[in-house]
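Cross-check.
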Amino acid sequence: MFMKYFSAISVLLVFTAASFTSAYSQQNNFAPSSLPGKGIAQYDFFYAGEAKTQNMYIVRKGQIVWEYKDTVTKGEISDAVLMTNGNILFADQYGITLINKDKKKLWHYEVPQGREVHTAQPIGKDHIVFVENGDTGRVHVVNIKTGKTEKEFAIPVGNTKGVHGQFRHARLTLKGTLLVAHMDMGKVSEYDINGNQLSSYTVPGVWGVEPLANGNMLTCGKGTVREMNAKGDTVWMYSMKDNPDYKIGSSQIAIRRPNGNTVINDWFNQWSGKVDNSNQPLQFIEVTPEKKVVWALSSWIEPTNLGPATIIQFLDDKRISENVFFGNIK
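Predicted model, tokenized:
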């Protein structure tokens, strides 16, 4: 009788422990077992991310059709742009490089010692604008045909010693001004070609900023995406807590799709550990204006292992990547 009673208790304890473990595991999954959308086959896109190696990919119909892998050069890719002629411009912390589709280096800028660069944008085919981190921030516009710096001005930093955390993304607006994400100062500032600050908005922990066609801007950082108008009012916001089934640990950038949806990255830190293939983190999610997740990307298995996510550029987007201007520079 005692043995039967003991066995029953043992079975109950095992069942309870298994149920608790299962529930705990489910609570800590990065995403539901069945993700919305078609995964890597949902869109054709260009992809890059901050990682221990410098990897970039072009994906078409769910397959990697072009890849760039540099396991030797020091630095992480924080920004990259696929141009309409097939060239790729990327900033890797210690330099900026322009390559063609055959991976031939067309132009390179090496950052001076003690400084870093995490963002760069082409202006037409001949110019590049970028922001340097350092004892002071510096905005440069360089003519890559002549090698001449055509414009340079200083912008403030919050921490002169914490160079790495000063700036991430900067983007040109439709009116030819530059939005800069001052990450260490918790603000986005707008500058004209002469370095005059035209506006400034408080955005705690801002990592990425994107100007929108309606004149607003989309910011990302500290687990929150905000669409802000010219007055600095938040007109739309998405918190990573809005969909608790989709756990985003480090959101850096947000991109507004032509259909009004917003795509948000989740950066996985390779310096903190390896991906658990039984519970793979997300790389991107797409949410509607109503905050419904309609697509989620998690592609960590060969032959389509994309690695950590920072940049995604959709190939069906008709907006020309280099069709921008900065003041009188086009």
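The radius of gyration is 22 Å. The chain is about 10% helix and 40% strand. Passed to J.P. for a second look.
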